[in-house]
Amino acid sequence: MGSTAVEFKNPATTTLLELVKSRRTYYGLKAESPISDDAIERIVEDSVLHVPSSFNTQTSRVVLLLKEEHKKVWDIAISAMENLVAAGVLTQEAYEASTKPKLNAFRAAYGTVLFFVDYESLATIKEQFAIYADKFDPFALESNAMSQYLVWLALESEGFGANLQHYSPLIDAEITKTWGLPASWKLDAQLVFGTPTSEAGEKTFQPLETRLKVFGK
């Protein structure tokens, strides 16, 4: 399964799928960019405008942080983790050996894209379609995840490496305060990007036969 050679009607399909295959997680990043900041902004802008959402609710919110502004995110995360050490939740040894080097590696990158969901904006549609009310929050998160993936693919296509992080809720309050963001924006993920300084790890796959079934072919 999956090994048969096929031809697509549109060559762009092959290009898209090759991008999907080549996307990797890069942890070794430096604060350099192969493209202009305006080009980075366009990638993020198009994801905000064109990624679909359930009932066209458009619940995703995104903040692009570059250079010194990007570093602030990881200073906040470092401070949050140091607070955990002080509270005895995380040992000093574990922090120094693993957590701190990882956070400093994120800080050394070029930028961070913060992805949020505005769940409060769903109040009206939840009333209109009460039978689906408990589904709209998960639907919003699905749309946000599509935005994350699109931005990741596009940045990698332009020569960046990236990795996706989840430091909520530890950094949420300070992120909101630092950039004066609406309280209704709930942080979901942080996409760190920069020029790769090392190779990505090897991809491994579970058997496709256990994950995909095709009927009617």
Automatic annotation (TrEMBL):
Biological-process GO terms, alphabetical: cellular response to oxidative stress
Predominant cellular place of this UniProt entry's protein: cytoplasm
A single Gene Ontology CC term: cytoplasm
Organism phylogeny: Eukaryota, Fungi, Dikarya, Ascomycota, Pezizomycotina
Superkingdom to which the source organism belongs: Eukaryota
UniProt-annotated location(s): Cytoplasm; Nucleus
The protein's name: Nitroreductase domain-containing protein
Keywords per UniProt: Cytoplasm, Nucleus, Oxidoreductase
Source species: Penicillium frequentans
